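@channel sequence for tomorrow's demo:
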Amino acid sequence: MDKTDPIDCRLKKSVMLLRGWRWMSLVSTQREEAIHILGSEAKFLVQIGPKHPEYAKQIGKLIVAYQRLITAMKEGG
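structure tokens (generated this afternoon):
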């Protein structure tokens, strides 16, 4: 994912990544790799949040969704 995209496009890509991994989490056998990918995206969102306060609510919701999926995958669910 290109991290230099305009913020609107970047957030849309982040949502698509989250949706894809929600589905993949049901069938994936490589949980650690998936958790790493999801964690990297969540960290990126945390970093861009202060730079784009106008998107704070949307970014915050994505961060929470990523964290919930990571937690669920770590618990094996």
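heads up for whoever presents: The two ends are 27 Å apart (CA to CA).
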